[in-house]
Amino acid sequence: MFKLIKTDLKKFIQGKMFLWIVILVIFFPLLQAGLILAIKDLIPEEQIILLNPDYNFYSSFSLLNNFGLIFTIFMIVWVVSEFREQTIRNKVILGYKKSTIFYAKVIEASIVTFITMSLNAILNYLATGIIVGFKDSNMAELLQHYVVMILAVITIIIFIQVVGFIFRTTGLTLGVSLGVIFVFTIVSSVLLLLNNDVLTRIFSLILPFNQLQYYSSFKDLDMLWMILVDFVYIFILLFIGRKFNYTIDYR
User: Fold this and answer.
1) What pLDDT is stored for residue 168 in this prediction?
2) What is the pLDDT of residue 159?
3) The model's pTM
4) Which among 6, 102, 115, 166 has most CB atoms closer than 10 A?
5) Cβ(170)–Cβ(244) below 8 Å
6) How far is CA 78 from the centre of its chain?
7) Would you give the end-to-end CA distance of the chain in angstroms?
8) Would you call 188 exposed, middle or buried from its count of C-beta atoms within 10 A (0-12, 13-18, 19+)?
9) Helix orientation angle between 66-84 and 16-39, rounded to the nearest 10 degrees
10) Can you give the residue ranges of every domain in the chain?
11) DSSP code, position 212
């Protein structure tokens, strides 16, 4: 499996998608920095949430913001391209088991997601902090949210991969994946508008999508519970993906 992962990641790094991801990871934080520079002297600082480095760090993990949406689409295209280009069929011919191919893709997507989303969040945090300062930043809380949010993003990306292995077409995978993300993001936004802390906390405890919108301090064992729930979802998704993968005829 490790040889397959190494080969696939090497191919990914040599491709155009990787180049675009690198460009966009740098471009959007710079764009944000330019926006902050343009408005920071025009409006009182306390009225502009963009001037908070912690907020910009948290919001970087959203899969419906500028970079997050593009990255999600890239991941969908990458997963489905395995079927369109008959890459998976060739792997089967070379003797790789279907389960090995599926798990390898999960690991590859998780590695790419972890590195890319982490780098994007760190650059956004630094771009804001360098301009407005880090005096109000809470590093301990920042790290706690980072662990929860990056795991939630990886869980969602694995969900997208399972959807891709089920439908095997870009259009359907794109529609279903973005549709689900959009619906749960709307639910999270409605809860925030209702200002119902209890419901917001409950949904964040049980849904990875809502964890990406949860910026409040963790209470009691909330952080550990969210991590546990994400691992349960990952286990279920891997089980479904593996079972469904066996039914696919790659010939």
Assistant:
1) 81
2) 95
3) 0.90
4) 102
5) no
6) 14
7) 21
8) buried
9) 170
10) 2-245
11) T
DSSP H helix total and E strand total for the chain? 11, 0
Confidence (pLDDT) at 198: 78
**In the block, residue with structure tokens 């809380």:** 141
What is the Cα–Cα distance from 90 to 86, expressed in whole angstroms?
Answer: 6
Q: Are 40 and 48 contacting, i.e. CB atoms less than 8 angstroms apart?
A: yes
Closest alpha carbon to 185 in 72, 105, 56, 109: 72
Q: Which two tokens stand for residue 65?
A: 């913001």
Residue 80 neighbours by CB under 8 Å, 6+ apart: 164, 168, 169, 170, 173
DSSP letter (8 states) at residue 51: G
Distance CA 169, CA 85 (A): 11
> Cβ(85)–Cβ(15) under 8 Å?
no
* pLDDT for the residue 12: 87
pLDDT in the model for residue 22: 94
Question: How far is it, in rounded angstroms, from Cα 166 to Cα 184?
Answer: 21
Render pLDDT for 68-88 as a digit per residue (tens, 0 to 9). 999 999 999 988 887 766 666
In order of 138, 180, 236, the CA distances from 197 in angstroms are: 21, 23, 28
- C-alpha 179/C-alpha 129 separation (Å) is 34
Q: Residue 1 has which token pair?
A: 């499996």
pLDDT < 50: residue spans in the chain: none
| pLDDT at residue 151, rounded to an integer | 96
The pair of three-digit structure tokens given for residue 158, joined into one six-digit string: 């694995």
103: amino acid identity, one letter: Y
Residue 183 parent element (H or E): helix 170-194
